[in-house]
Design brief:
95 residues; mainly beta; three-stranded antiparallel β-sheet; 5% helix
Amino acid sequence: MDYLKLETEPHSQSYTIDWIKKGYSIKVMNLSYVPISVSNLYQDFVACDVVHMNNCRILLRRPWQYDVDATYRGKRSIYVFTWEGKRINMKVYST
């Protein structure tokens, strides 16, 4: 959040999660709207829950997949969806 200079706001319903770090519960109290884009073809903001971590990942799951009717193609590691009449193939990078 600091590196990307993204603003946060209080989460409407804070909650705890246990799956990020074994043996610890982490409280989710903030969210941020993160811009994503594919060239000039697709630009949007994804609402992301914010938790303290040593590294960063954005998990594109529901409701984003539902909202844009995206299909994840695992072998090619891409999301495929149509936006404003154009077919978008968005590559998913992992490190």
